[in-house]
Specification:
Two copies of one chain form a homodimer. By secondary structure, chain A is an alpha/beta fold. Chain A contains 16 helices and 30 strands. In chain A, a hairpin with a 2-residue loop joins strand 21 and strand 22. At the A-B interface, helix 1, helix 3, helix 8, strand 21 and strand 22 of A face helix 1, helix 3, helix 8, strand 21 and strand 22 of B.
């Protein structure tokens, strides 16, 4: 008996059937649709996916015919009697309550959008987006000519909906409680996305809370905590999800500190006859080992499969979740895997970090641009702890290589030697991932020392800032107080630099960190001390100090 | 003293400088250019890279000014006196022969296009493409209005040039000695590329040898071994490269069985004061362990760096080369990593294989298509031995993930659990790489048994071919003698199938292998024996049997 027919539930059902032709497999789904493309919902509203039914990847009839599964849509499980192994079910279609017994129960109830008890939270023009009916409702409003929307929450769904509604010609106000977009990224990595959204005409309200929803001229008025009132045709609440554990909790099943249902490595809850999988369960974080809630489609699918294996008597275990995720918003891509710097800090896990800005492919071949890449790694053996990339071309590829590196215990030293496919349209002889390995290994070996944008102005105040870019670049912008000695003049101006330094720390920088590294090597080999080079150069600096 | 200033040589020079400000570093380059974008040459001829000087990534002056390197272009090393540690150099600029002593000599002489002693091999309209002057010569002919070209050799450079010349409006005859394009792929994987080239109007002459070159109406006449004579404005010879080891051999340095210069793990030749790096050296193959010649830009760059490290007293070693490579030709991409099936066969290395055809990203999101993927893995632990992918979107990403998996000792079992970035524009909840892991693990676990396209018609003759696609698909095409039972009818027609089978082997197939796998599971769980399912389905079958 499987409760919930989307990612984990449908995976569990079909896998179970592939392992047994005699099992009675019942799939309960309170909605009308099973295994629909929930990640595709914003794209139908935006118009990229024009056909509504393209999102119905698998239909109940297909599961019945091909997999001999007893699919019951419009049927919601409401309570579990664990002693008698009975499930009470509300059948909305037949308008009745009934009971079914189970040998093994599999809970795949997912996570629901968070809706805090704010004034007007039930306003008819305030929506959340979780399923096909939600999508249809929102799309109908847009199709009817809606002009303005307020999107609350700047994480994956919120930002995908910003793009979708903007594509439909709407004016968007984006409200986010935190000081940054995309909380899975570190703040400085989200900056480029913020600029990109502004360039696309999206009005950002960061560090801002939506406090109430009332009737307005266009349909809804959203009041912000800074006093501003936003008039719109509709508002979307996308501030996060919480696991749907109510029925499990009522049945006395245990949850973990994250709020997700606790399961063992076979995805069994505290009741050995009840399994759970997907967004409602607590997982172990691959990098930190902490119990975590990481709602993602890929892990949900794999967990559903593992549940079916174990139910059918196979030894099958789920390892951990590392939080690999990706967002497309307009022309940009943002992706991450593993732990963020803020997470490592919070858990007091020692780390080192670098920033770099490599091109997606050979810079002389058209169609590429510099990506913003951050790599976090352990100070000892150079274990990869996390990566974040924001850019245009080639972002998804590099995050997947790094996600694979984390699983393969590939260190930053090994990253230098990865043999990746190179031709000018796809990469560089030294791929961004190799390059990150070189920089990180140089750091760990002590061949270079970094200073970071956040060291300015505090830590840099007692030293000399040395800008090694060209005179032209220096004239256009430089850090206040910096002295300009272009890289190719360094060797001939060593005495002058020594005179300027006067024993103080020397803080080198350039545009992305390559020239300042070369300057660092020259100066150090000529006996200079107290040297460091700005990680990520001006490009990262400007993401921190705007 | 470094001989050769392109990939390995230039990398060695700049790395050496980063480690020492006192070393005298001399870079000898017989040509005019150092560290140019040799992989970009076809794209300037084709017009994608419009500016000639974009290919001059690094200039001699830049190396002089920024790295204090004594760059001597137009200077060719001609002989080595190992006892006296003297290099004899021909200075074409100063028109003189002179000698220089060295403490450490680094040979980075690369590999030259193979030019067999055929009649007319020196014909003025027969070209090879290795450097900027070669490119300029060919481009001048094209710019002057050349209409027809014969390209001989269908490997990377040959195919990139086919696209380049075709983009310029030329008619192309492509002549290849082997029965397939791209010898690094297995033959069946090259088929889609062959169709694509034909669709683009390229005339293919496979299994054909160019025998002589004489004057012709347009400029050159190429005679083929089948008697045909091709008239063209120009011909390009791109049948492979051979390491430039003449000087090294004359100096008594050892070569390996591959013909490349033999080096130790520090890239030292048989003379401890002479190093070598790049396309002229023999490497160990990552998967097979065999001494091999694998000319690639990425490994060349890394080897140059390792040489510099070791010369400067650091312990630095090169591991092996796995042959990760990639080709763009028109709208298609072909890529591979590790060993091919024919290489594994030749070396008697046990392997298993699967074929699959997953989409580059979620099929309901626009802009994707099915790729053709072949995975080779060890029969025991499921070690990944090699992968080949031919398709359109997402090919480069998957080959890089698999290349990383090979380095990280990630097995096909682990591949199932890789957590890759999923949103509809980038992938699927079950990524092609995960999916390949599921299929291969099913194979190793005995949950499925495959038959292969090459088993037809020999091995399949004694059995029953069962086509589980729809009646409509069956009517359009099917394997001769096959019986059609659509997947969803299997359960209701078990007795009928048993009657047809009469104890014979049952060979299932469908379009790509998914439905026939499901049919396999149903039949097996219902007690059927002697079952197997066609790996890769009709799509792979049609690549073998056209």
């Amino acid at each position: 008996m499987i409760v919930g027919g989307v990612a984990a539930g449908a995976s569990a059902a079909v896998r179970a059937r592939r392992l047994s032709e005699v099992a009675d497999i019942v799939l309960l789904e309170r909605g009308e649709h099973v295994s629909f493309a929930n990640c595709g919902l914003p794209y139908h509203i935006g118009g990229e996916i024009s056909k509504h039914d393209d999102l119905l990847v698998v239909t109940p009839d297909y599961l019945r015919q091909t997999f001999n599964i007893d699919v019951r849509t419009g049927n919601e499980a409401v309570s579990i009697d664990r002693d008698r192994k009975l499930l009470t079910i509300h059948d909305y279609v037949g308008d009745r309550i009934y009971q079914e017994s189970y040998d093994k129960l599999v809970l795949c109830q997912g996570a629901a959008p968070v809706t805090p008890p704010l004034p007007g939270i039930d306003h008819p023009r305030l929506f959340t987006l979780r399923n096909i009916p939600d999508m249809d409702t929102i799309k109908a409003i847009v199709d009817a000519g809606a002009r303005r929307a307020v999107v609350i929450g700047a994480n994956y769904i919120g930002l995908e909906m910003v793009e979708a509604l903007s594509r439909r010609g709407m004016h968007i106000d984006l409200v986010e409680m935190q000081r940054q977009l995309m909380p899975s990224l570190d703040a400085e990595m989200a900056r480029e996305l913020e600029c990109h959204l502004e360039d696309k005409g999206i009005r950002l309200h960061l560090d801002t809370i939506a406090e109430s929803f009332t009737d307005g001229a266009g349909g809804i008025r959203v009041a912000l905590n800074n006093g501003e009132k936003l008039e719109a045709d509709m508002a979307l609440l996308a501030i996060g999800v919480r696991p749907e554990t109510d029925m499990a909790l009522n049945a006395g099943l245990e949850t973990g500190i994250s709020g997700g249902l606790r399961v063992d490595r076979h995805m069994r809850t505290s009741d050995p006859d009840i399994y759970a999988a997907g967004d409602m369960v607590e997982v172990s974080h691959t990098v930190t080992g902490e119990p975590s809630l990481i709602p993602l489609a890929g892990p949900a699918n794999r967990q559903g499969r593992i549940v079916a294996n174990h139910v059918m008597g196979r030894d099958s275990t789920y390892g951990s979740t590392q939080g690999t995720s990706i967002l497309k918003v307009f022309e940009m891509t943002a992706a991450c895997t593993g732990a963020s710097e803020k997470l490592l800090k919070k858990l007091n896990i020692p780390y080192r970090k670098i920033y770099l800005h490599p091109y997606g492919h050979a810079s002389y071949y058209p169609g590429t641009s510099q990506m913003h890449m951050k790599l976090l790694y352990g100070p000892g053996l150079g274990k990869v702890l996390g990566a974040q990339i924001v850019g245009r071309d080639g972002v998804d590829k590099r995050i997947d290589i790094l996600a694979t590196a984390i699983r393969g215990d590939i260190t930053v030293y090994d990253m230098r030697e990865l043999e990746l496919a190179y031709a000018p349209p796809y990469g560089s002889a030294r791929d961004p991932v190799n390059y990150a390995g070189f920089v990180a290994a140089n750091d760990l070996r002590g061949d270079v020392e970094f200073w970071y944008a956040e060291d300015y102005p505090g830590k840099t105040a007692g030293g000399l800032l040395l800008d090694v870019r060209t005179k032209k670049e220096f004239r256009a912008w430089h850090i206040e107080g910096a002295v300009n000695v272009p890289l190719h003049e360094i060797r001939s101006r060593l005495d002058e630099i020594r005179g300027l330094q006067q024993g103080r720390p020397l803080f080198l920088y350039c545009l992305v960190g390559i020239r300042s590294y070369l300057a660092y090597r020259i100066l150090r080999l000529h006996g200079f001390e107290h040297l460091s080079t700005l990680a990520g150069g001006k490009k990262t600096f400007r993401s921190v100090h705007r």
